Amino acid sequence: MSELPPCPQCECPYTYEDGPLLICPECAHEWPAAAAADATPVWRDANGTELVDGDSVTVIKDLKVKGSSFVVKVGTKVKNIRLVEGDHDIDCRIEGVGAMQLKSEFVKKA
User: 3-state SS of the chain?
Assistant: First the structure.
């Protein structure tokens, strides 16, 4: 879970979320959580290294391809990834398989 920002009025570090708002328990100041959210999300691989569009990654676990008997083997290198928001956050093309989506937790930066 991401760390919430301190209150902009009293700098209290104990802010909490309540629906779309962030609330300070000390001064009762409320502000929209969207204003506090970082505009650019950060994707990380299994080792915690930051990933960016165009990186090459290596698969660290055998992955079954849904709807097929094919398995993406450990050590498969994937070039020129594209990062997207969602559960499967990497769009890529794997040789012999085609277009796929992967989870960043199952790859490491090459």
Answer: CCCCCCCCCCCCCCCEEECCEEECCCCCCEEEHHHHCCCCCCEECCCCCEECCCCCEEECCCEECCCCCCEECCCCEECCCEECCCCCCEEEEECCCEEEEECHHHEEEC
Q: Note the pLDDT tens digit of each residue in 20-32.
A: 889 999 999 998 8
- Asked whether residue 98 carries a pLDDT value surpassing 50, the answer given is yes
Whole-Å CA distances, 51 to 6, 10, 36, 60, 110 = 27, 35, 23, 15, 10
Structural domain that includes position 60: 56-109
pTM for this entry: 0.64
| Total tally of structural domains belonging to the chain | 2
Residues 24 and 64 in one domain: no
In a domain, 15, yes or no: yes
